[in-house]
Amino acid sequence: xxxxxxxxxxxxxxxxxxxxxxxxxxxxxxxxxxxxxxxxxxxxxxxxxxxxxxxxxxxxxxxxxxxxxxxxxxxxxxxxxxxxxxxxxxxxxxxxxxxxxxxxxxxxxxxxxxxxxxxxxxxxxxxxxxxxxxxxxxxxxxxxxxxxxxxxxxxxxxxxxxxxxxxxxxxxxxxxxxxxxxxxxxxxxxxxxxxxxxxxxxxxxxxxxxxxxxxxxxxxxxxxxxxxxxxxxxxxxxxxxxxxxxxxxxxxxxxxxxxxxxxxxxxxxxxxxxxxxxxxxxxxxxxxxxxxxxxxxxxxxxxxxxxxxxxxxxxxxxxxxxxxxxxxxxxxxxxxxxxxxxxxxxxxxxxxxxxxxxxxxxxxxxxxxxxxxxxxxxxxxxxxxxx
Length: 387
Known about the structure:
The protein is of the alpha/beta class. It has helices at about 5-20, 180-200, 215-225, 260-270, 275-285, 290-310, 330, 350-355, 360-385; strands spanning about 30-35, 40-50, 55-60, 70-75, 80, 90, 95-105, 105-115, 120-125, 130-135, 160-165, 205, 230-235, 245-250, 320-325, 340-345. It folds into 2 domains: about 20-145, Immunoglobulin-like; about 155-385, Aminopeptidase, CATH 3.40.630.40. The protein has 9 helices and 16 strands. The chain is elongated and about 75 Å long.
């Protein structure tokens, strides 16, 4: 063996040691790597201490080297060192496992070893900074479909509703007049809505039924794994202006309105100026697959809420702030028609009193459920004609 080869071999042997002890300055860190496995997709989340720009690349299997097909993501300016050097085995029929290591002194590489694959999506989230890779595909060969196949939400039988009570646990949400916490109001309304929908022959899945904290990835993984047909996220609003009151319903859209950005920033728990990154992410997603359905759902539910509130003497003066569109994480992470209901302003004394009233929450749950029934009936008729 030549002296040069021996020297190179020595450097390769020393590389793990050098990477471990000679970390360059100014790099971000890998804080955590998490995975969730569900029927039609597996989610891989890498939490970082700083934002990165990244893209997913795919490599075919290398049978001679014994390497499976894989996806990989390079994270420039990120240090992982020798953490996770044993990898994270998954073996769920879709992914074999996840590996993450120091590819160069200034770059970490995430490798996702595939067992089966249809498609993937990449999301870059903030507060905390995360790289999210969702890998879709069947877990058995018999269920395989073409790689360009897309879920057809317009032709799904609408029966299962996912209800998301916003915030919870260590995240109280908005704090209103008298110290009322948004997370408590959200859960009360969500439970009432669930019982109304079940009475109307829907199957209901709730992201939480008690006071627990769920991050946005967990909420939407629960929704996706449940294979829900609709997603309804329940919230209560807040404003610096104490006089602002009323109900708003949002659906996802790449466009937005000025006020929508303020609300989205609060519900997404990110500074308003970081929503530009979110907008770029939205442009990469197939919003068109569910956007029209979400808008119709929002409009239908809104009309029933307004009709019900105007008919009740206690709520007929409550302002109708209309149907709006905005960039909400919890909506764009869901692949089904989705809406976000802001049930009133906790920062307004009159609204806060209503939100603390069982009578008001019952009325709101009834009218939202009525709107969902009308949406189901109208969509069902259109679906029947297209089959």
